[in-house]
Amino acid sequence: MKRSNSMSGANHNAPFTASHVRSISGSRASLAPPRPNQPHFQRSSSGTNMADLGLSSVKRTSFQGGSGRKSYAPPAMGQPSTESSERRSSVYRSRSSSSGPTAHQSFFQQGPQPAGAPQDPRPLETRITQVRIGQELLEYMAANNFEMEMKHSLSERTMKSPTQKDFVFMFQWLYHRIDPSYRFQKGIDAEVPPILEQLRYPFRKKITKSSLTAVGSANAWHIYLGLLHWMMQLAQMLEGYAANQYDDACAEAGVDVASDKIVFDFLSRAYRDWLSMDEDAGDDDQDRVLAPHVDAMARQFDSANAKYLDELQILEAEHEGLQREIEMLEKSGSDVATLDRNFKIMEEDKVKFEEFDNRMNQKSEKYEARIQFLQDELDKVMQELKEADDERANLQKAVDDQGISMVDIDRMTSERERLQKGVDSTSQRLEEAKKKVAEKEVEASQKLDDLERMVDKYNSLGYQIGLIPATAANAKGKNYELQVVVNEGPNFSSSQMGASSNGNTESDRLLADPMTGYQPAHILNLDLRGQVKSSFSGLRKEIYDRRTVARDEMEKHHDLLDGIKEAIEDKRGEVEALEHRVRAAEEEYEKTKEVTTTQKLASDTQIEKMEKELAKMRAGLTESVQLMEQREMNTNIEYEQLTLRANALREELHTEIERMLNDIIKFKVHIQKNLEDYEGFVVDEVEQELSGQDEVDDTQEVEEK
C-alpha cells in the first residue's frame, strides 16, 4: 500500500510546525486520535548516551492491515471515517512525562490549566484597546503579505466592523502562520472550536458556534478581535523561537537549552524521515535512514560538551601546578628562608633610615631659607626708615625757610579738606541725576518698542479679519492701518552719547523738538478712541448677526441628522431581528448535525487499538531516556567529587601558608627585639668611651698647667 507525501519544502526548516501532514487515498480511513503524551526528557550532558540509544528510540513497528500508520492530528468534528481528507498537524497537544519528576523541566511540558472559566484581563470592551490591537494586526498582516497570499484586502474600517468573510480570511491566515500544513475543509463554525482546544486558548469557553456565525456584531466582535490578536502574538513567539531569539534570555536565567534543542531537532527530523518511508520497509532500512540523524546528534552533543571538557582539563592543570609548588616548598631549606628574612629586615631598616635622613635635610634647608628671607626683609625695613627720616628733615627745613607757622599749615589743610568734600558730594549728586535720566530714557524706549509691537499685532489681526488694507472686505474703503509717527534715529542720542543738546536733537527718535517729546495723540496716525472704535463696534454687530443666522442653519441640519439616525436605528433593529432568526435556524442545524456524530462510534474501537500500539512505542522510548538520565547522574556525581577534592586541597594549602606566615612574623619580632637590645648596648659603650676620653683630656690639661 503506497501513499504520497504532501510536505512542502518550507516546512522542513520550521521546527515548530507539523511537517508530517500526508494525503491518504480513499481506501484508507483517517484515524485521528488525540496526540499521545510525550515523555519528559531530562537535559543530558553526554552526546554518546543519545547516540547509543538513538536507534532504539525512534524505531517503529509496521502496522499490517488496512488501517496503515496512525495520525497525530486532532479528530475532525463530524467527519466520517471513510472520507478522504488531509491530515492535520497537532504539535500543540499536551505532553505529560512518564518518567517521574526530574530536576529540569523541559520545554515540551506545560503546566496544568486552572479550574473554571478564566476571566480575560484585557480591556477588550474599550474603544482604545480595540483600535490599538486592530492597528497591530493590520501592521503585522501588511508586513507578512496577507493581501498577496489571501487575495483579499483589509482596511482600518475592517477592524471596526468586519464581515464574516474578513474574519474567516484573517483566522485562516493567522493559523497557517502557526501551522502551515493544516487544511481547512469545513465551515468556520466547525473548524474553530477544535482548533482553539488544540491551541489551548485560555478564553475559548466564551466562543460558541452560534456566535461564530455573527462575529462582526457589536456584542461579539471584541471577543474575536482579542482571539486574533492572541494568535498573532503566538505566531510571533513561534517565529522568535525558530530564529533562536530566546536563547539569550534562557542563558541569563541560568537555563541551558542546548540539550533540549538538540533532542528536539533530532526527533523532528528523524520522525519526518520515518514517516516518509514505505509501509513495507524493514528494520535494516529504518536503521539506515535514521543512522545519519543519530550521528549528527552525537556530534552536536560532543560539541556542546567540549567546553565542560576544556574546563576539566584546566582544573587538572591547575591541580598539577599546585602539587608541584607544594613539593618545591617542602624541599627548600630553612637556612635560605632565614637569610631571606634577615635581608628583607635590613633592607627595610635601611629604607627607613634614608627617609629619616632626607626629612632632616629638608627641614635644615627650609630653616636656612627662612632665615635668609627674614634678614632681607629686615634690611629693606631699615632702608625705608632711613629714607623717611631724610625726607622728614628736608620738609622741616623747607617749611622753616618759607616762614610759615604750624597754625597756617593746619588752617590750609582743613580748608582743602572742606573743598574736597564739597566736590565729592556734588559729583555724587550729578551721578545720581545721570542714572535717573538714563533709567527714564530706557523705560521710554521700552514703552515705544511695546507700542510698535502692539501696532504690528493690530495690523496682522486686521489683515486676518479683512480690515486692512482699505480695499479689504470689511474695511468699506477706510484705512485702518496703524503707523507709529516718530523720527528716525537713536533714542535720546544727546544724553546717551554725551554730546551737546544742540548737535543731535534733530535725530532723536523720541523728541518732537529739542526740548519736548511727543504728545500721545501725535504718535499714531489714527484716532483710536473716536473714529476707529465706532467703526469696530459696527463691524462687531454685523458679525454677530451673521453668526446668529449660521447657528440657526446649523441647528436645522442637526435636527435633520437626528431624524436620519433614528431611521438607521430602526433599520438596525430589524437587521438584528433577522440575525436572531438566522442564529435560531443555525442552532437547529447544529442539533441535527450533532445527532449524526454517533456514527463515529464504530471507528473509536480501531482508534483504541492504535493507541495501545503507540503506548508500546512510548514505553520503549521511556526506557532509553531513563538510561540516559542514569549516565548523566553518574557524570554529575563524579564532577562533584572532583570539586570537593579540589576544595579540600585548597583549604590545606591555605592552612599551611598561614602557619608559615605566623612563624615568619614571630621570627621578625624576635630579630627586631635583639637589634634594639644591641643598639642600646652600643650606645652605652660609646657613652662610656666618650666619658673616659673627657676625663683623660681634663687630666692632661691639669698636668700642663
Please give a handful of descriptors for the protein shown.
705 residues; mainly alpha; two-stranded antiparallel sheet; 17 helices; 68% helix
End-to-end separation: 149 Å
Number of helices: 17
Please report the total strand number as a whole number.
2
Helical content, roughly? 55-70%
Mean pLDDT: 75
Short summary of the structure?
This protein has 705 residues and is mostly helical. It contains 17 helices and 2 strands.
Structure description:
The protein is built from 17 helices and two strands. With 705 residues, the chain is mainly alpha-helical. Helix 1 (47-58) packs antiparallel against helix 11 (283-331), helix 5 packs parallel to helix 8 and helix 10 (258-275) runs antiparallel to helix 11. The longest helix is centred in the last third of the chain and has 104 residues, at 601-704. The radius of gyration is 53 Å and the shape is flat. Residues 1-110 and 492-507 have low confidence and may be disordered.
List strands and helices in order, with pairings.
Layout: E1 4-5, E2 22-23, H1 47-58, H2 127-143, H3 146-150, H4 156-160, H5 164-178, H6 188-199, H7 209-212, H8 221-242, H9 247-252, H10 258-275, H11 283-331, H12 334-402, H13 406-465, H14 493-497, H15 520-523, H16 528-596, H17 601-704
Antiparallel strand pairs: 1-2
